[in-house]
Amino acid sequence: MKGENLQGLVEFIAQSLVDQPTEVNVEKRQNGNTVHLDLYVAKEDMGRVIGRSGRVANSIRTLLKVAAAREGSRTKLDIVEPD
């Protein structure tokens, strides 16, 4: 199924970056040929996942874009602000 590998990739990268890896959650939605991923992390770890000027987040999106292209799909990653 498309997107399962992408979801696992985002989970792996995020868990490697944060202090609280058990708080990492990735939800997947499929919309045609596009896989939408929502990344949830602990409030204290938001800065680690986003990085300075969004560099870490953009790097994760670049890796996802390449992985999705290999699967023949497109991807969109949203990092969701915790309440």
Description of the molecule:
- With 83 residues, this protein is of the alpha+beta class.
- The chain has a single domain (4-80), classed as GMP Synthetase, Chain A, domain 3, CATH 3.30.300.20.
- It is 43% helix and 25% strand.
- It has a three-stranded mixed beta sheet with strand order 1-2-3.
- A hairpin with a 2-residue loop joins strand 1 (25-31) and strand 2.
- Helix 1 (4-17) runs antiparallel to helix 3 (55-71).
- The protein is globular and about 35 Å long.
- The mean pLDDT is 92.
Low-confidence stretches: none
Strand order of the largest sheet: 1-2-3
Termini separation comes to 31 Å
Q: Architecture, according to CATH?
A: 2-Layer Sandwich
Counted up, domains total 1
Q: What is the element string, with H for helices and E for strands?
A: HEEHHE
Q: How would you characterize the largest beta sheet? A: 3 strands, mixed
Q: Can you tell me the overall shape?
A: globular
Radius of gyration: 12 Å
Strand-residue proportion: 25-35%
Q: Structural class, from helix and strand content?
A: alpha+beta
Number of helices: 3
Mean pLDDT: 92
- Write down the CATH topology: GMP Synthetase, Chain A, domain 3
Total strands: the figure is 3
The helix content, as a percent range, equals 40-55%
CATH class: Alpha Beta
At the fourth CATH level, what is the homologous superfamily?
Answer: K homology (KH) domain
